[in-house]
């Protein structure tokens, strides 16, 4: 029977319960409301994906270790064996049987180096565990302790305090003395509840005067489930649910007993706080559907892990109802007295949130829902479920494979994510988080994974006997966060005020324009004449024997054009970018078969745009990125496509046809859209470079043709458009990552722009060729791989001349920013995917907001990109962002796209106004959705082409000309667009006189007209009367002789 106070009668117990409920404070009145977290609308997630602010003063920044994983010295200076020592010495574990923790990180001997590592980080707390079998080899704390162990922990605590680092001590982190396992069966036996209380009392007495924070045990869920249920952890017992439930029950009671011991005997003098570290995963409703059923399953999933232990301690003193239903009689019961005794036996909530629980969440307690590493949400759940307790995150972090070594780039971003989620929980959700401990301080023995995975901020080479501690890049990052006390706002992120110039392109970009050549009216195909049966049934009936010639369709008869351009015009945009269909216009790839109807349709589109005073930007070749033809005519593709030089000549002839037939209406031409993406669809590196080479030559030939034969008359500008995402070094602490990001940009952009423009670092157009850095890298790569030479083709002298300067403006399609790192080299080359030619690996930052298709929304990347291009190629040529957008699944209220437009255009304005980039246009991708909501500003025709909310945002920015101080409409004077007109100026100045004179002139003209009309009328009347007299005289004249004339 547990040794704790019990009320004398059940009546007293009920009275106590009633008083407890009635006297609940603000916190406890809100117990059990965790389900609300899934019902809360997750609005404006793009603004909260990363939060800039600092942590409260006094926030506990820390790191942590556990004794078994790091101390080593497993049998030195009187230490007894633990269940983990026994387990790893006797159990074969997935080829790890030779790995032990006998030395581990050797922190027992090198604890001073650990303290120096803490000092390097700048932490204010250190969470470590005491080794029960080191202090008491037989586990019995009623005997004498091991003096060497006591002295070791005293030295460590004193040094920490000397360095102004708060010790946070865990009494039990899984290393139960082996003798207690052998004598009692470990935690299955409730005898350990009393033994643990005695051990805890000794620790409180020996060290408590210098310790403010105590943790009784670490993540008891894993002890119960992995240690005694599945057998994956020591002691390796496979008791199933029954064994796990019994062990968990004893662990909870052991914790409560230790807490009561401290509360009664030590708190008055030491004034410390005691809690228990509970681990958890997090789940979101399946497919984001927060139905009542899914919410209930999510709640059950968290209750099955965190609630199992937290509900008795922080809740009502009992297990969650869902566990009682699930396990029935298997689940041990708390007596009414025990419920009161266990309840509220923690002074703060200590949370472990790491890979161990998340792995289990995905495999054991998922409940059909989606497991996600969202620390903010679990903190919010704790607040709602357990009455807003103070929370200490005692374990936060991730792991890497041992082969990663010191360059743990992925851990940097997961650390960033977890810490920022804590900040959001504090600032946005008002959760009382008092500290965060990054796990772990140094690499150690990772339980059943041995040394195959690493979790330390400091790298340890376990092959060296002195176990040197080397900070990983994640340690450098964590140090930077601690130094800044979080994530203070970046001044460059602040919005600015200003306007774009009047001639700025406010555009919308589309892909290939679909040709609907069938006119709307039947008059173009039906020659029959009809009569209308008005008095009968009102039907139209053909008139027999009568046919009419069909009228040729007019541009206004194509309602598809009218409807499409009506949508476009309603946005307020001034420029429309669309593509022609090469395969449709020239099915055979040459001029032998020209589709005149398609050509006429495009001409109609252009003429209608002109009527609306809208400017077209026309793409000649828009690769489809789909088999079989990639958007080029079938015969050309069959003959090798862009690997065959004949396609270059064919493209020039196609361009000439378009210039001749459509050029009168086009002010901007784009020869090829995103050739840098097209080459990705070729298999080998050699093919990719050959295709890129020919695409460059095709563009240059088309540009030169326009310059020679059409520019003098049509005056359009010609370019090619490149996909241009910004590249950020994934690891800011490694030069190799900086080099990789630069190399990525050269392969993506420099490969196409350098041969056309040269660079601003050289004499203008003096050396048109592929980037020298790119050439050197490919040459060295070929040497290392044993290839005969670089895969890059060389330009002839004539080709160089044709390429030089063949670009009228720089067109960039920008959507996102990429994290770039060098492609990792592993020993298993046979299984490794061949690295791309640029040798870069693309990553993403999980703290960046992203769309449902995974596109990261990174506004500042646009400004970085524009500056890079401007600096490399000079500011003479205008730069136009010819496509930019984001997918948004919202049918109408597309908040993510609204945020995208505002923020990206803000960065565009900064680039132009602050950085003096010659930016002259921004085109939103795209006008209308296909079948499902994605990038369109309008819904699909299937959904009646409804305008989305982002159109109003874009239209307002266009109307204001940007982001002016006073938000008044931008008025562009004629002098900004055209040559000054002196006559127009005089007319405007004397408009009152002109109006008055006009009125007089109109009046005079009207009077003159009236006089002329009167005179003309009287003259006509006089003439009419004269003709009437003559007619009467004829009728009334001399008699006529009717007899024959007689000769005399």
From TrEMBL:
UniProtKB keywords: Cell membrane, Glycoprotein, Membrane, Repeat, Signal, Transmembrane, Transmembrane helix
Gene3D superfamilies: Glycosidases (3.20.20.80)
A cellular-component GO term for this protein: plasma membrane
Membrane topology per record: Single-pass membrane protein
GO-annotated molecular function: hydrolase activity, hydrolyzing O-glycosyl compounds
PROSITE patterns for the chain: GLYCOSYL_HYDROL_F1_2
Subcellular location: Cell membrane
InterPro entries given in the database record: GH (IPR017853), GH_1_N_CS (IPR033132), Glyco_hydro_1 (IPR001360)
Membrane-spanning residues: 992-1015
Keyword Mitochondrion: no
Signal peptide: 1-29
Single Gene Ontology BP annotation: carbohydrate metabolic process
PANTHER family from the UniProt entry: BETA-KLOTHO (PTHR10353:SF68), GLYCOSYL HYDROLASE (PTHR10353)
Family: Belongs to the glycosyl hydrolase 1 family. Klotho subfamily.
Name of the protein in question: Beta-klotho
Organism: Eleginops maclovinus (Patagonian blennie)
């Amino acid at each position: 029977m547990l040794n704790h106070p019990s009320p004398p009668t059940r009546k007293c117990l009920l009275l106590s319960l009633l008083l407890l409920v009635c006297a609940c404070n603000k916190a406890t009145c809100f117990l059990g409301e965790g389900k609300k977290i899934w019902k809360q609308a997750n609005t404006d997630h793009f603004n909260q994906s990363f939060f800039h602010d600092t942590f409260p003063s006094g926030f506990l920044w820390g790191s942590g270790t556990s004794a078994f994983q790091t101390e080593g010295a497993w049998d030195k200076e009187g230490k007894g064996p633990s269940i983990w020592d026994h387990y790893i010495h006797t159990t074969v574990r997935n080829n790890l049987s030779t790995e032990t923790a006998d030395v581990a990180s050797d922190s027992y001997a090198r604890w001073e180096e650990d303290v120096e590592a803490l000092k390097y980080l700048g932490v204010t707390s250190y969470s470590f565990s005491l080794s029960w079998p080191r202090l008491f080899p037989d586990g019995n704390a009623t005997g004498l302790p091991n003096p060497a162990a006591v002295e070791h922990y005293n030295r460590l605590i004193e040094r920490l305090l000397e360095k102004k680092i708060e010790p946070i001590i865990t009494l039990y982190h899984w290393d139960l003395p082996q003798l207690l396992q052998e004598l009692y069966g470990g935690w299955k036996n409730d005898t350990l509840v009393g033994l643990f209380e005695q051990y805890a009392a000794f620790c409180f007495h020996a060290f408590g005067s210098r310790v403010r924070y105590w943790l009784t045990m670490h993540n008891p869920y894993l002890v119960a489930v992995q240690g005694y249920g599945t057998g994956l952890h020591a002691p390796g017992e496979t008791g199933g649910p029954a064994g796990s439930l019994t062990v968990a029950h004893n662990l909870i009671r052991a914790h409560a007993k230790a807490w009561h011991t401290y509360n009664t005997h030590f708190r008055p003098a030491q004034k410390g706080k005691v809690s228990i570290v509970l681990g958890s995963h997090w789940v979101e409703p399946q497919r984001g559907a927060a139905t009542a059923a899914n919410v209930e399953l999510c709640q059950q999933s968290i209750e099955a892990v965190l609630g199992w232990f937290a509900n008795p301690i922080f809740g009502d003193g009992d297990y969650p109802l869902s566990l009682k239903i699930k396990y029935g009689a298997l689940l041990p019961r708390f007596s009414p007295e025990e419920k009161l005794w266990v309840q509220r036996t923690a002074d703060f909530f200590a949370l472990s949130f790491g890979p161990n629980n998340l792995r289990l969440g995905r495999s054991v307690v998922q409940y059909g829902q989606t497991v996600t590493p969202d620390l903010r949400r679990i903190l919010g759940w704790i607040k709602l479920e357990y009455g807003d307790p103070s929370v200490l995150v005692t374990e936060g972090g991730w792991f890497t494979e041992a082969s990663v070594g010191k360059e743990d780039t992925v851990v940097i971003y997961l650390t960033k994510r977890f810490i920022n989620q804590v900040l959001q929980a504090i600032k946005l959700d008002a959760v009382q988080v008092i500290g965060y401990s990054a796990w772990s301080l140094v690499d150690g023995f990772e339980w059943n994974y041995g040394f195959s995975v690493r979790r330390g901020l400091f790298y340890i080479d376990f092959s060296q006997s002195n176990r040197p501690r080397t900070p990983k890049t994640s340690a450098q990052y964590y140090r930077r966060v601690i130094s800044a006390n979080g994530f203070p706002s970046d001044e460059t992120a602040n919005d600015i005020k200003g306007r774009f110039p009047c001639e700025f392109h406010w555009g919308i970009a589309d892909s290939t324009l679909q040709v609907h050549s069938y006119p709307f009216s039947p008059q173009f195909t039906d020659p029959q004449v009809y009569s209308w049966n008005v008095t009968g049934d009102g039907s139209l009936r053909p008139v027999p024997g009568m046919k009419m010639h069909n009228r040729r369709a007019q541009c206004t008869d194509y309602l598809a054009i009218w409807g499409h351009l009506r949508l476009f015009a309603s946005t307020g945009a001034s420029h429309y970018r669309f593509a022609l269909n090469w395969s449709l216009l020239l099915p055979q790839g040459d001029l032998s078969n020209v589709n005149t109807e398609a050509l006429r349709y495009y001409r109609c589109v252009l003429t209608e745009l002109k009527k609306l005073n809208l400017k077209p930007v026309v793409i000649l070749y828009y690769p489809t990125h789909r088999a079989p033809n990639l958007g080029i005519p079938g015969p050309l593709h069959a003959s090798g496509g862009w690997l065959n030089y004949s396609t270059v000549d064919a493209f020039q002839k196609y361009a000439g046809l378009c210039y001749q037939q459509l050029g009168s209406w086009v002010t901007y031409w784009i020869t090829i859209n995103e050739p840098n993406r097209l080459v990705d669809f070729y298999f080998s590196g050699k093919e990719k470079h050959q295709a890129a080479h020919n695409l460059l030559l095709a563009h240059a030939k088309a540009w030169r043709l326009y310059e020679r034969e059409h520019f003098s008359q049509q005056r359009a500008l010609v370019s090619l458009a490149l996909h241009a995402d910004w590249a950020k070094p994934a690891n800011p602490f490694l030069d190799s990552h900086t080099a990789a990001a630069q190399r990525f940009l050269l392969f993506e952009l420099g490969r196409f722009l350098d041969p056309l423009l040269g660079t601003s670092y050289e004499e203008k157009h003096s050396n048109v060729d592929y980037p020298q850095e790119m050439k050197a890298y490919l040459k060295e790569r070929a040497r290392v791989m044993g290839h005969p030479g670089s895969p890059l083709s060389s330009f002839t002298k004539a080709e160089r001349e044709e390429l030089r300067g063949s670009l009228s403006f720089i067109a960039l399609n920008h959507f996102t920013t990429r994290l770039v790192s060098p492609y990792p080299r592993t020993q298993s080359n046979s299984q490794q995917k061949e690295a791309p030619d640029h040798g870069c690996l693309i990553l993403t930052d999980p703290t960046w907001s992203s769309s449902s298709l995974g596109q990261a929304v990174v506004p500042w990347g646009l400004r970085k990109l524009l500056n890079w291009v401007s600096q490399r190629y000079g500011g003479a040529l205008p730069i136009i962002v010819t496509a930019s957008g984001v997918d948004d699944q919202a049918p109408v209220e597309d908040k993510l796209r609204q945020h995208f437009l505002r923020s990206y255009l803000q960065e565009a304005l900064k680039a132009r106004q602050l950085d003096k980039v010659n930016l002259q246009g921004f085109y939103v991708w795209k006008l209308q959705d296909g079948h499902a909501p994605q990038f369109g500003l309008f819904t699909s025709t299937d959904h009646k082409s409804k305008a989305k909310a982002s159109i109003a945002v874009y239209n307002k920015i266009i109307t204001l000309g940007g982001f002016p101080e006073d938000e008044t409409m931008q008025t562009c004077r004629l002098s900004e667009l055209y040559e000054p007109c002196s006559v127009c100026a005089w007319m405007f100045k004397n408009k009152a006189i002109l109006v008055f004179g006009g009125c007089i002139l109109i009046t005079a003209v009207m009077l003159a007209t009236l006089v002329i009309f009167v005179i003309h009328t009287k003259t006509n009347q006089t003439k009419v009367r004269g003709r009437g007299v003559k007619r009467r005289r004829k009728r009334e004249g001399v008699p006529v002789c009717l007899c024959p004339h007689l000769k005399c």
